[in-house]
From TrEMBL:
Main localization category: cytoplasm
Lineage summary: Bacteria, Pseudomonadati, Bacteroidota, Flavobacteriia, Flavobacteriales
Free-text comment on the cofactor: Binds 2 magnesium ions per subunit.
Organism annotation: Phaeocystidibacter luteus
Coiled-coil residue spans: none
Residue span, UmuC domain: 10-190
Binding positions (Mg(2+)): 14, 108
EC identifiers of the protein: 2.7.7.7
Gene Ontology biological process terms from the UniProt entry: DNA repair; DNA-templated DNA replication; error-prone translesion synthesis; SOS response
Key words, A-Z: Cytoplasm, DNA damage, DNA repair, DNA replication, DNA-binding, DNA-directed DNA polymerase, Magnesium, Metal-binding, Mutator protein, Nucleotidyltransferase, Transferase
UniProt-recorded name of the protein: DNA polymerase IV
A single GO molecular function term of this UniProt record: magnesium ion binding
CC cofactor: Mg(2+)
SUPFAM superfamilies reported for this sequence: DNA/RNA polymerases (SSF56672), Lesion bypass DNA polymerase (Y-family), little finger domain (SSF100879)
PROSITE patterns: UMUC (PS50173)
Length: 357
């Protein structure tokens, strides 16, 4: 008997070329031009690229020198993270008007569970459309969205009609959608894992569904059960909203495995953005920073470092997290990274501060 497929109403909202779009919004001279945020023509790494730059193959986490060769007219712009955080908070305020179940993945994307919502709206599709319109009216920035029964499908769907679009995969269309989905776009399948699937003759979701669980377990270890379930649209992971706990942490399981130091370091800094938001919201400090790394084969290592005095400064925290990653840089593909701040204490605070689809 096949496992029951949980059905929720999940929206994945993803801002379109967020950092670059903010810079183009605030500087009319950059509009319509290929822009890279971060780095320079000689050194550094691209943090974000405008859609005009992406046409030349410029991508985030790409070494700036390679980006400059691909696009000789590329304009490098210094990042303004305080401004991006301010805009991100505006966007999150909009999310919380609809649901308390909001899970930020970074400054520019988040999951929302609108199975029940503050406005009592029956259609997740209409909620996503309304949220995107609200974001435009508030920030003058465009967002795309995916709507489906779980986080994986919602995230995949948000890429379908980018930029400035949305895609809904209702329950009755899940199997057909997964059947034609390339194996490379399945949650947790990176380049090396995709090669293993190709050798098995698996190139689409329909192919994956034909592979029996024992074979998947023998070839992919613990990850085999995950692939078996996801091919059937089964994912139990819920939207994790912020909450008080003994530690404050963020982690992400990547839809495509990370390969190489540059992609891992870029992903680590994205996690740092989320961690900063949670630390600020919880008004806490901590003494222990823990890095979590999970391989494509579901093997997990954690490495921690403690400091003498509690800290809440994200730059100090990320410097330690970066050192931990550099000292334990995996030679294998990574499917999950996480950062946790533990041994918590409260920050000193001024007394003046008080569905239908």
């Amino acid at each position: 008997m096949e496992e029951e497929r949980p059905i929720r109403k999940i929206i994945h909202v993803d801002m379109d070329a967020f950092y670059a779009s903010v810079e183009q919004r605030d500087n009319p001279d950059l509009r319509g031009l290929p822009v890279a945020v971060g780095g320079s023509a000689e050194r550094g790494v691209v943090a974000a690229a405008s859609y005009e730059a992406r046409k030349y193959g410029v991508r985030s986490a790409m070494p700036s020198a390679i980006a400059a060769r691909r696009c000789p007219d590329l304009i490098f712009v210094k990042p303004h993270f305080e401004k991006y955080r301010e805009v991100s908070h505006q966007i999150r305020d909009i999310f919380f008007e609809y649901t308390d179940k909001v899970e930020p993945l970074s400054l520019d994307e988040a999951y929302l569970d609108v199975t029940t919502n503050h406005k009592g709206l029956p259609s997740a599709t209409l909620i996503a459309k309304e949220i995107r319109e609200r974001i435009w009216d508030t920030t003058n920035l465009r967002a795309s969205a995916g709507i489906s029964i779980n986080k994986f499908l919602a995230k995949v769907a948000s890429d379908v009609n980018k930029p400035n679009g949305q895609k809904t995969i209702p329950p009755e269309e899940v199997d057909a959608f997964l059947a034609t989905l390339p194996i490379e776009r399945f949650f947790g399948v990176g380049a090396k894992t995709a090669e293993k699937f190709h050798r098995l003759g698996v190139r689409t979701g329909a192919d994956l569904r034909l592979v029996e669980l024992p074979l998947l377990l023998s070839r992919f270890g613990k990850a085999g059960r995950h692939y078996y379930q996801i091919a059937r649209g089964i994912q139990h992971s819920e939207v994790q909203s912020d909450r008080q706990r003994k530690s404050v942490g963020v982690e992400e399981t990547f839809s495509t495995d990370l390969d190489g130091p540059e992609s891992m370091m870029s992903a680590l800094w994205k996690l740092g953005e989320r961690l900063e938001y949670r630390i600020s919201k919880a008004k806490i400090k901590g003494r222990t920073i823990t890095l979590k790394i999970k391989s494509a084969d579901f093997e997990t290592i954690t490495r921690s470092q403690s400091v003498s005095e509690p800290i809440d400064d994200i730059h100090e925290i990320m410097e330690i997290a970066q050192q931990l990653l550099q000292a334990n840089m995996p030679s294998y593909s990574v499917r999950l990274l996480g950062i946790t701040l533990g041994n918590l204490g409260e920050k000193e605070v001024s007394e003046q501060l008080t569905l239908r689809f």
